[in-house]
From TrEMBL:
Organism: Vreelandella aquamarina
Domain of life: Bacteria
Gene3D superfamilies assigned to the protein according to its UniProt record, in alphabetical order: P-loop containing nucleotide triphosphate hydrolases
UniProt entry keywords in alphabetical sequence: ATP-binding, Nucleotide-binding, Transport
GO MF entries: ATP binding; ATP hydrolysis activity
Keyword Nucleotide-binding: yes
GO CC annotations on file: plasma membrane
Protein name in UniProt: ABC transporter ATP-binding protein
ABC transporter domain residues: 12-253
Matching PANTHER family: ABC TRANSPORTER ATP-BINDING PROTEIN, CONSERVED COMPONENT OF ABC TRANSPORTER FOR NATURAL AMINO ACIDS-RELATED
Amino acid sequence: MRADEVTKGPVLETRGLTKEFCGFTAVDNVNLQVQEGHIHALIGPNGAGKTTVFNLLTKFLPPTRGEILYRGQPITSKKSNEIAQLGLVRSFQISAVFAHMTALENVRVALQRQLGTSFHFWKSEKTLDHLNDRALALLDEVGLREYADTLTVEMPYGRKRALEVATTLALDPSMMLLDEPTQGMGAEDVDRIVALIKRVSQGRTVLMVEHNLSVVSRLCDRITVLARGAVLAEGDYDTVSRNPLVREAYMGSEAAEEAAV
């Protein structure tokens, strides 16, 4: 249990969340509770429905049935931009920064969005100078101050993902949804991103989809395992990793039996 955990109701909750596509059930009656101050992971084999759940939570997809609540208030009918304004902000599995802008400019664009001025691209760059101090502070927070004037396309992949975290922080989230934050990274970049998530999660709640179980074991307070769109198991890492149903979902029944011996 984290020292900054607030023992109240869940900050994010789903009740009977279901998504069907032409008769196929991608998300099946998912009841999820994310506690304030936790880093909570959604894991599962390929096709388990993890990213679809993220799309439902952030309203990129409408649910077929079920309810989503944020801080006790229903948000099922709200639009994605309204969700973000409430402090529930998502980063994406594929880096969503502008390749031919510098790191500083990318963060400044995110800050413009937060201030409601994101469409003022025709204005003189000097009119945005008042955002520089905050943008540089955010770059410093994610360890990218030295990359401030570097075009994003020229940055190493792991640094681009860190920049994406900075642009997410620019929206001042109270809860961050991170979709595969370490996907495609080497060990050194993974370690850097794990440290970064630990740092930026202070005072925030994080829900993350993550395929790297080593990352999950190092970061997460609680884990929800999905299989075929439904919740298979839930608990801390030790509890979940010893669950024979989870082993079978990841490795197959025979391998799971051998691993349990």
